[in-house]
Amino acid sequence: MDFIREQLKGYGMSDLMIVYLSNIIMVLFIAAVSIIANLIAKKIVLNAISRIVSRNRLKWGAIVLEKNVLHKLSHLVPAVIIYFSAWSFPAYQILIERLAAVYMIVVAITVLNALLNAFDEIYRSFEVSKIRPIKGYIQVMKIVLFIIGGILSVAGLIGQNPLIILSGLGALSAVLMLVFKDSILGLVAGIQLSSNDMVRVGDWIEMPNYNADGDVIDITLNTVKVMNFDKTITMIPSYALISDSFRNWRSMQTSGGRRIKRSIRIDTSSIGFCTEEMIGEFKKIHYLSDYLESRLQEIEAYNAEHNVNRESKVNGRQLTNVGVFREYIRQYLRHHPGIHQGMTLMVRQLAPEETGLPLEIYAFSSDTAWAVYETVQADIFDHIFAVAPMFGLRVFQNPTGHDISRIREGEASL
Predict the structure, then answer these.
(1) How high is the pLDDT of residue 90?
(2) Ordered domains of the chain (ranges, CATH)
């Protein structure tokens, strides 16, 4: 500044003009130096670092560059230059230093924010991120970072100790707790969800209270984002997963089998004892030949041992068409390629109702994919409905208009 003023005096200018011109020239000089330094930091230093990172093929380094961490950090260079040049303007030195310091605080906050984003992105590249998501904790760190940055900025502008502002915030703790209520609840819920391994990214969850039925795609501080199977997005508050009930299908997906639990209802009026002709036809079925041989021998031995009167089928033990049909279904499932043979498999009778006798199939498909599971289940019941009449059984169905019209046609023919 003294050098510039000496040069201006040589042109015979007045003192007031010298002061104004020297200040303008100094401002332009500092601005030019700041711009040049910023360009050097971005064009030379950052490009060199980018080449080194791309040459080493470090994944985390590429993520740091992608999040513009170093690019944001380069904004500190002109701020530092301006801060240490404030002495050139004694009348405005304190104001310039305070503004430059606040700017540096803001830049530091943006750099740390970008660094946290990069760390979250790097963490997501590991499989453990699906089991232990940390996005909620990172959001808490960001909130704390912004609060501290705001306090330091205000303290820097008014020239007060940040502890004084902190002591004033202590009196507003109730208001702060009200403002950050959801964040506090979300933090507590996130800790419980993570420590108890209740939900992970990629889990299929079902929560009827929020119309959520799909895959978890993101877990944040305040919300859990679920993509439903109709491709809509449902946002569930994190604390709702702690306070309300929900169903997680993860264990089903990892077990390798998906449960089939469905019934076919048999008309009870079609149930009866097997005749010799029926048994002869049943023996032609591959799945039943061995069963019938052993079963008939067992029944014959029992009836002979107890001197059963064969004139009535009520006496002793006899085969029934529904019992043979039940065994056929079981054997059919045992040989079905889409059924998991290492899990529970049974065909059982449930309590008869006014809609017939339910025969329930309880088994597990060997593929948990939804489309494959539905295909396997449909294939099984297609076959069961088709073979039921071969056992002399009728599947129960309430009368339809077609049934009524057939009855009327029969009455008309008479």
Answers:
(1) 72
(2) 2-193 (no CATH), 196-253 (2.30.30.60), 258-403 (no CATH)
